[in-house]
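Re: How this chain folds, sequence and tokenised backbone to follow
Notation: Tokens come from a learned vocabulary of local backbone shapes, not from coordinates.
Start of record: The labelled sequence and token lines come straight after this line.
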Amino acid sequence: MTWWWGADGEVVEVPLIRRPAKWIITRLAEYLSQQTIPDLNSGLRVFRKEVALRFLTLYPDGFSFTTTITLAMLTNHYRVKFIPINYHKRWESRRSIRCGISRILRF
């Protein structure tokens, strides 16, 4: 089974405060998997449910599922294909934030 996802196709602004941590986590993931990982947290992932369920005990409550499943697939020799994609910075308005909060409160 090939695991597909998009990776950054262009440079995206990462807040300065987050850069050191993201760099360390990515280098650690690359070291553990012995592969280059263009973007550890970005993009679409497609995989078989049965494969993901094999690693169910590894998925933590407080850490990124995407990072964990990426490392699980790579270190267990599943084929992984990184496909560059382009995307634009998200924009948010005060109204969209208020609408989102009010929807949550109504739920």
Summary: Residues 6 and 83 are 5 Å apart (CA to CA).
